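Input (structure):
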């Protein structure tokens, strides 16, 4: 008999009814490719959610672990002949778990305290990476402390990202003016760019201002919330959404741009559709989309020297339908020799915080990407998501293969040269 207290799943009940249990999704799922295990596959997760919704299964710890084991790469959604939104079903199940108190202490602290106070994030991130490196030096792989502390499997192999000495939000004024502006856009920097890759923010601002666009970075912006609601904490995710909506909507903007695939998906689609928190007054664009579809980008580039391939971030390609635009930009830059890799849109295994919790599986997923790059004559992997960049950079350092990782906007900024520097 159907239960009546699964409000989040109930909102997506029609998706449960649409599933034909055909198994097409299995062969699209990178986790099923690794494990060949039905509960790790989309069809298995849908069956678990359906059983819980109908009262045939408790929302137990076993259920939580099965539902947590998902990259949210949306490959299953793309492959499903019935159009089942398996991603939304999984997130709704996670929300049911959070409503029942199944959120770890660490997650509660990060989501409900740390991420809403942007000024605390840089020092805490630096402390966390320092402690991670110390644990690698001091603790053996089989340390008993792992039973009591949140030390993930494979921690000895990790190469932690370097947190910037000066994060992006401290490098720029709130409004970056240009002479005779053609447009005024809000720039949502995002946590990965802010903390780890402030040079990407510099590149975004250089490219926009070079194209006569005034840039606004509202003070007090917070994490978009993607890691929060993806863990099932919809209430906190909605709070973040409403704060960002209020901040950006204070300004009269022609558009809002971001250079992070996950931030773009969140701001553009998840705020109004999944979280039902509202919409921005201005349209939201990924930087690739904005530079190819909204403005006519200046082509006064100087040649650069890169042999590149491109990785399609899941939340850009499947999440927002943006695939051709980055390739248009790459082919417009003189000196860039671009070679597309096989399965460029296959997930890299990052999955937001997935690689932190399930590192060995994440490595297996990444190996497929490396296989597809192996015979390419390239020196640089280009992508459009800081999260993907971190996974590739770590992997390339571990492999010592000498390859660089760049955001596409960094190549554009470099090709514009130094003429915009004051």
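Output (sequence):
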């Amino acid at each position: 008999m159907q239960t009546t207290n699964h409000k989040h799943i109930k909102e997506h009940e029609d998706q449960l009814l649409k599933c034909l249990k055909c198994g097409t999704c299995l062969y699209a799922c990178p986790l099923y490719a690794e494990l060949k295990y039905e509960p790790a596959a989309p069809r298995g997760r849908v069956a678990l959610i359906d059983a819980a919704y109908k009262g045939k299964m408790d929302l137990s710890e076993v259920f939580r672990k099965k539902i947590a084991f998902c990259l949210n790469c949306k490959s299953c959604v793309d492959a499903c002949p019935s159009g089942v939104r398996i991603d939304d079903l999984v997130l709704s199940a996670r929300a049911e778990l959070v409503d029942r108190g199944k959120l770890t202490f660490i997650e509660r602290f990060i989501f409900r305290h740390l991420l809403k106070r942007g000024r605390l994030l840089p020092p805490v991130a630096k402390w966390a990476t320092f402690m991670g490196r110390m644990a690698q030096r001091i603790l053996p792989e089989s340390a008993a402390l792992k039973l009591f502390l949140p030390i993930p499997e494979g921690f000895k192999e990790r190469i932690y990202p370097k947190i910037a000495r000066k994060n992006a939000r401290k490098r720029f004024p709130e409004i970056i003016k240009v002479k005779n502006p053609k447009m005024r856009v809000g720039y949502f920097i995002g946590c990965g760019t802010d903390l780890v890759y402030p040079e990407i923010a510099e590149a975004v601002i250089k490219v926009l201002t070079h194209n006569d666009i005034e840039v606004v970075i509202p003070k007090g912006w917070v994490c978009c919330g993607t890691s929060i609601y993806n863990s099932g904490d919809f209430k906190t995710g909605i709070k973040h959404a409403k704060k960002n909506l209020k901040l950006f909507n204070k300004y009269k903007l022609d558009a809002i741009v971001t250079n992070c695939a996950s931030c773009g998906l969140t701001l553009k689609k998840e705020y109004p559709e999944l979280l039902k928190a509202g919409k921005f007054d201005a349209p939201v664009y990924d930087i690739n989309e904005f530079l190819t579809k909204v403005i006519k980008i200046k082509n006064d580039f100087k040649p650069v020297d890169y042999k590149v391939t491109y990785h399609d971030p899941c939340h850009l390609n499947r999440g927002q339908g943006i695939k051709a635009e980055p390739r248009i930009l790459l082919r417009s830059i003189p000196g860039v020799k671009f070679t597309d890799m096989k399965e460029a849109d296959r997930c890299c295994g990052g999955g937001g915080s997935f690689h932190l919790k399930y590192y060995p599986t994440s490595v297996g997923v990444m190996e497929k990407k490396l296989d597809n790059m192996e015979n390419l004559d390239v020196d640089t992997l280009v992508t459009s998501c800081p999260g993907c960049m971190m996974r590739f950079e770590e992997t390339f350092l571990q492999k010592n293969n000498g390859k660089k990782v760049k955001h596409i906007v960094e190549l554009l900024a470099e090709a514009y040269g130094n003429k915009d520097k004051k």
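Notes: The chain is about 50% helix and 10% strand. The mean pLDDT is 90.
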